[in-house]
Amino acid sequence: MTEAKYIALLAAPPLILGTGYVAFRQLVAHFGFKLGYLSSFLFYWIVWCLLLPWWVLGAGGMFQLFREGSSRFGQPAAVGLILLVLPCVLGYGYAFPRAIRHADVLIVVLSAALALTNGTLEELLWRGTYLKAFSGSWLLGYVYPSIGFAAWHFAPQTVAPNRAPGGSLSFVIVAGLAGLMWGWTARSSSSILWPAIFHVLFDFSGLGARIYFSAPSRPQDA
Fold first, then answer.
1. Alpha-carbon distance 29 to 198, whole Å?
2. From the CB of residue 177, how many other CB atoms can be counted at a distance below 10 Å?
3. How far apart, in whole angstroms, are the C-alpha atoms of residue 122 and residue 202?
4. Which of 21, 76, 91, 158 has the fewest CB atoms within 10 Å, i.e. is most exposed?
5. Domain-by-domain residue ranges, the chain?
């Protein structure tokens, strides 16, 4: 791997936060909340979660990240499985019961599609690419991207802030803790297959498509 790729990965987390902030603020202002919010995520998914890993690892390297390792959940397997399940316990114990009351079939289907896209691509970037590139560094391959993953979640909340107790900060803290849990299993098992699956399940628990049906037309002023 070239030095330029290592530098790009080290610079990526603050750049993702910065470009995300600009994208959400500007695109929502220009295109309205629904189209602007979705367009901002498309920018994040395509440029950062897909093209950056493709440039760093190549298509073959990206697909290899999803191959199951010799130990499905890492060692010890029980710890890896518990860490995968814990975020879902929070999601389906707290967020899902509240979200499903205001959801219909369309929201459920769209939420599943969003969760599949977001969970898979985020694991490809934040867990898989960093763990592969910095396999010998616990700090750069595990801790640093977990912090970057958490901080990135401030960007979309500049236009759609978390309404749960603790606001945006509590949402970022939960994301960071979940990232550390998924990262431990990915690092221990040398695969992002199961972290990606549980990330998708966790994202679905919030039924994220609801925001396109219930968000205010000018959330940046809320």
1. 33
2. 16
3. 13
4. 76
5. 3-221
Backbone angles phi, psi at 164, to 5 degrees: -75, 165
Query: Taking a C-beta distance cutoff of 8 angstroms, is the pair 204, 93 a contact?
Result: no
User: Do 69 and 56 touch, CB atoms closer than 8 A?
Assistant: no
Q: What is the Cα–Cα distance from 179 to 194, expressed in whole angstroms?
A: 13
One-letter amino acid at 132 equals K
Residue 40 token pair:
């901002």
Alpha carbon distances (Å) from 217 to 18, 26, 31, 36, 93? 24, 15, 11, 11, 29
Across the range 122-128, mean pLDDT stands at 98
Phi and psi of 217, rounded to 5°?
A: -70, -25
Tokens of 128: 């898989």
What pLDDT, in 10s, does the model give residues 38-83? 999 999 999 999 999 999 999 999 999 999 877 889 889 999 999 9
Instruction: Compute the residue count for the chain.
Output: 222
- Largest distance between two CA atoms of the chain: 51
Q: Is the pTM of this model over 0.90?
A: yes
Q: Identify which of 213, 209, 38, 204 has the alpha carbon closest to the alpha carbon of residue 120.
A: 204
